[in-house]
Every structure is written in C-alpha cells, then in structure tokens.
Amino acid sequence: MRTSTLPYCLLLPAFLLTSAAQGQSKKNLYHKGWIDFNKDGKKDVFEDATQPVERRVADLLSQMTLEEKTCQTATLYGYGRVLKDKMPTPEWKNMVWKDGIANIDEELNGLAYHPGAATEFSYPFSKHATAINDVQKWFVEETRLGIPVDFTNEGIHGLCHDRATPLPAPIGIGSTWNKALVRQAGATVGREAKALGYTNVYAPILDPARDQRWGRVVECYGENPFHIAELGKQMVLGIQEQGVASTLKHYAVYSVPKGGRDGDVRTDPHVAPREMHQLYLYPFRRVVQEAKPMGVMSSYNDWDGQPVTGSHYFLTELLREKFGFDGYVVSDSEAVEFLFTKHHVADTYKQAVKQAIEAGLNVRTNFTMPEVYIMPLRELVKEGSVSMKTLDQRVADVLRVKFRLGLFDQPYTSNPKAADKAVHTPADEAFSLQLNRETMVLLKNEKNLLPLDAKALKSVLVTGPMAAEKNYTTSRYGPSNNPVTTVLDGIKNYLGAKATVHYAKGCDIVDASWPESEIIPTPLTTEEQASIDEAVAQARQADVVIAVVGEDEKRVGESLSRTGLGLPGRQLQLLQALQATGKPVVMVLVNGQPLTINWENRYVPAILEAWFPGPQSGRVIAETLFGDNNPGGKLPITFPKSTGQIEYNFPFKVSSQAGQPSAGPNGYGKTSINGALYPFGFGLSYTTFEYGNLVVNQPSQHAHADVQVTVEVTNTGKRLGDEVVQLYLKDKVSSVTTYEFDLRGFERVRLQPGEKKTIRFTLHPDDLALLDKNMNWTVEPGEFEVLLGSSSEDIRLRKSFTVQAE
Hints:
CATH class of the largest domain: Alpha Beta
CATH superfamily of the largest domain: Glycoside hydrolase, family 3, N-terminal domain
Distance between the termini: 60 Å
Protein name: Beta-glucosidase
Largest sheet: 7 strands, parallel
Shape: globular
Strand content: 15-25%
Keywords: Hydrolase, Signal
Low-confidence stretches: 1-10, 18-24
Number of helices: 23
Radius of gyration: 28 Å
Family: Belongs to the glycosyl hydrolase 3 family.
InterPro entries: BXL, Fn3-like, GH, Glyco_hydro_3_C, Glyco_hydro_3_C_sf, Glyco_hydro_3_N, Glyco_hydro_3_N_sf, Ig-like_fold
GO molecular function, one term: alpha-L-arabinofuranosidase activity
Strand order of the largest sheet: 3-4-5-6-7-8-11
Number of strands: 29
C-alpha cells in the first residue's frame, strides 16, 4: 500500500480527485488538509482538524439555519425502506434533506428477508463503498454547509450487510462467556463497517432477558446484568477501536414488557426502582462509563408511567448527568409516535415531538419520511414552544459525534477497492467458525453417549424439523446471502464414507393450529402420523438417532413472544416415538430461548444446546457431536421447568425462588414444581475439572480497596476442554435486602488433560456496592463471601472476607 506523509484523515479518495476536475466549484472544495464544506473559500474553524472539537461544533452551529439544524435531528431510512432512490437524483434538491440529514440507516445493505431492499450496490463490497461515497459526496457538495451523513447499520449478529461475516445469535455469543472473542467480534463488525462506508453500528443489545417468553431473548446476551455488561463492554470497545461508533440498544427497561408480551404490546414493565437500577440499568451504566459508546437507542416502552423516549429523567438526568454519556441518542423506530398513539401522554403528534426533544432525544427514527418529524419541530421552534437553546444542544450532540468520527476531516472511504479484501476474509470465516464452536452448551450426556464414535457407526438417522432448515442462520439484524450448511449436510460432510446417513423429517416445526394447539391439543393428522412413522422405521435400522428440534426464525424473535415454552408442534411426539425404539437418541436444540424440555431431559440420554448458530451451523454441530469440538459453553439464562414459574431467573432475592415448607404454622404442602431445569451458568463437558487453592488476598479490606482472588483449576479428564470459572459474591448482612448472591467475575480457560492454571480475579468496590435505603450506591462494612464454581448451583469453593467500617 502506498504511504503518504499526510495523516489518513486528510487523504482524499481517488474518485474525488477526478470529479473535482470536472467543475471549478467542486474543485475549490477540496484542499490539501481540509475541505471547504460551507463553500466560502476559506478555512473555517469547523473545517480545521487542528481545532478542538468543541470549538468546531460551536463554529458550525453558529452558521446553521433553523432548517439545517432540524435536519440534523432525523434519520432517513435507506433504499428499500423509506428512500426510493439508490443513488442521488436531481429531485433530491427538492427533498427535505437538501439541508442535510443526521443519519441514513441501512443504506444499500441488501437487507435479509426484504426483497425490496435488494440492490446491485451491496456486492461486491467495493461497489458498496463507492456507492456510499457517492451519496456522501452529494451531501458534502450539494448542501449549503456540506455536513456529512452518519451512515448507520445494525450489527448484533455481525454487520447487517450482504455477505458480511456472520456471527451466531447474541444468546449464543453470551453462552461463550469469552470476553476476548467478543472483543474480536466487535472489531470484525467495526472493521467491516468502516470498509463498507458505515460509520455507526447499532450494537450491542444490553437488555437483560429476564422473561424467557419474550421473543427477543435470542438477541440478548442473557439474563444477568454483570455478564451482559462484561460482554457488552468488549463489543463496544471492539467496534469503536475501528473508528466506528457503537450505539447501545435498547435504553431502558425494554426487555420485560408485561407478561413477556411483545408484538403490539411492548409496554408496562413491572419493575421496582431498585431492580431497575440494579438489573436493567446496570449494563448501560457500566458500558457507558467504561467503554464510552457514541450512541444510545431510546426504547419505545414506558416505566412507571414514563415513556422512556419522552422522559427527561431517563434521557438526561440518568444517561447524561449520572452515567456521563456524551454521544447522541437515536429513537427506536416509532418511539416518538408512541408517545401520542400508544402511551397517550401527548394529545397530538406535534406535542410528542416537543416532549421527546425536550427530554433529550437527539435523532428521531421511523419508517416514514424524515419531514414527518422535522416539520413539526420547526413549527415548535418558530412558535417558541421549543427553545433554540434546546435545539442547539440536541444538534451539537450529533455534530460532536460526527467530528469525533472524523467525518469533517475524511467524509469518504479512502480506498473503496480495498473493501473486497477487507470484508469476510478467510480469517474472518475462521474466526466466525470458532465463535460458533464456543457457543455450544452440553445439557445432558448420560453414560457419556457423546461424543459419538464415527468409527463405530454404520448407519445414522438424522431427523427433526430443524435438520434441513436454514432460515435461523440468517437474521434480519445480521448478514444475508451467505452459503448455509444445514445440520443434515454438516453430518453428511463429516462422516463422508464412514457411515450411511439417512434422513426423515419426522414432523414440521409447528402443526396447523399452533400456537392454539398448546392449549387445545389436536390429534395427529394422517400425514403427521405417517411422517413420524417413517422416522421411527428408519430409526429402528440406525445405530444412533440425531434429532434436531427447536424453533426457527419465524417462531422466536422481535414481536414473536410465546405463551408456552415447550417444543412447538409435534416435535415432542416425534421424540417420544423415537425414544420408544430403544435406539440411542441425541437431541440437538436449535432455538432462541429457553425451552421447558422436561420429558426430553428425563428420557433423552444426550442433549446439545446449539442456539441459533450462523451459516456454518451444520459443520459446528457435527464437529461437536463427534468430539472434534468439546462443548465448553455455559447457559447465560435459566431454563425454567414451567412457564408457571416465571419469572424465574438469576440473580434472585433471598428465598424468592425457594420451594414450599413441609410443615409449619403458616401453611405447607406440595403444590408446585420447584427448581430450575438448568440453572444459570450450567454446561457440561466431555472432560472434567477440579477446583482448588482459593485465595483471597486479605481477610480484611477497606471499602475503597480492590480485592484480589485466585483459584486453581485442573483438567482431570482425558480431553482438551474449556471451563468457564465463575465467581459469585454474597453480601452476608446488609441494610437492604440484596440478591442471594450474584456473578462478579468469570473467565473461560482452555486446559489440556492434566493441565492446571491459576485464574485471577479483581473485585472492585463497585462489585461490592449496593443501593442503600436512600438509593445511593455504597459499599457497606461487613462480611462478604466469595463463591467459585462451574455454575450458579455448582459451587466448588467458598471463602469470606470482611470490609472494615470507615
């Protein structure tokens, strides 16, 4: 690559050097080391890269008209969503964005499952980078002030772009408990975004998935706020290290709509103030303070009667003044409209606009034209209902991020052709494969049925509705059009000529009357019985049965909350019929949320949780079943035995998830099913691990001191394996009721057979803090207990220390 003495941010892409020669007016914009955005023939303060960001923001803001300011408060959704043109047209001079726009979302990304968004500009990658440059060039050259656009895109499953590097679903990423891999995942997303012309990625999701019925569990890292904060921090750091903004989702208290209901509901979380701060705001506070993301997305739900997007308390007092957020807030789609149409806290949409901008919203996003928001906002300012000072503050936040991203120094992708070799490289594919491997969680392995011995098998039956399914590998919020290896094909490819692989679907994912069939059972149809019978007949001839069951992309996800959590459709009947043959059955779960697989857990000898892997799912699952990949993932969310137990999760308040007394003056009995099916942090391995020599550096500490903890872990089995060492902390006596104990550290460690490693943890004062009676975070004196183990219920070692009174 040719080097230059000029800083990267001041180099101009080659296409500009050519186009600048086409007209004197355009040529005069581009100078050595600066761009004349406002076209006044001189280097203004905001155009000078050597000036402090705040001076540049103030200078640009002072030059902006009301029209230009209001245009920096709205999103334009990209081609196929709202924007009708793939490329700028003369008509753009008559559109509202003739005065600029804050951001353009999902522009030319070839969005999955949306044929209307298909475009020839999404691939090859260099073509997209060039196209984004051309759109950016229009805003720089054809608007009065030339304010560059922030090109935003989704990124929770990998960058939401045609053929970008795919990642497993976030619930799978959460199951890795691997901070280094998540940091690398963020770096991959950020690097690909940068190469393709995107400047802002909507990731990660930091919502704790506390209700297993909620459809978006699949898109969360899990249920525990500490675990989410640790992984979310790494994702943000990885993205932003590539010079791209990370925008957190969904702030705040979004993931527990009443009863777990999503769809048309999405409101009324029943969360007490203390729990809101300790559970739902904790990941946002930590990640904002420790990783400094440039974006936050405000959610469309309410809390305690306050719709978040219209709440000064949430968007300003908490987010900016207490947490220290200094980026810009973009609304989730339709969140502003909901203030009027759903929450009814505004009597007109115009009043909803007023509430949102005064609360602290910077940029409104929805699948409608941006002028729907911009025009009422202009009216509000002209009437004096919204002050110019407020508008200036909101616009300054947006401009500040654009300056921090370097858009006023280098608004273009400098080398579009390089994208072809920078996106979804062989190294990226290998990384994605490893990340998928580490998502695998072994839930049951009776008599060490797994791993299967390929040499001992002659005939294998692969059955179940998920065996040949592909759609779960491609998310609306991730890459599209990558080639998919189904589980069936993965097993065939793995075994090759070693064994004969037979296939029978067995049943569909759901039956004709599902989900009503969950509450009103219907008999099997003739066709359904015949399909199960076919699978049973083939099972009798096989050495082992691999049943791939669960949910697909249409059964779990956004707006797809469930009322039951059993395997949908006829899948349980299929498993029962297969088990009755007496052949060994291995169950592979492909799903997006915990399922109440009680019969399956009791009677099926081996169960592998695969979640929603990426397009390499078949290869990864085959490698795991046959032992090339030793599953080392752990559950980031509790599996309840029944929906009647919900909410049932970790952490929990003292005795809040206890059973029933067997005797006593206040009642006793046996009326409920108690305990978790699989607890938080659970996961088996093909090898075994032993814990020893737990050391806490000092038995007595000051409240403001760190606590050092070490523990030795040994692989006592015969296979290479990963263990996730989990540190929990218990506050023995406190001024307010706290959680029974909570996660405060974890490390995934790889050990050869017989290998021993020392794992080190540092507990910070924040890890010991609680919200006292006055709702202040404080570390109280007293005794704390450190618990080390392999899950929240498999505690191997304990040791106490004391925090001294000041």
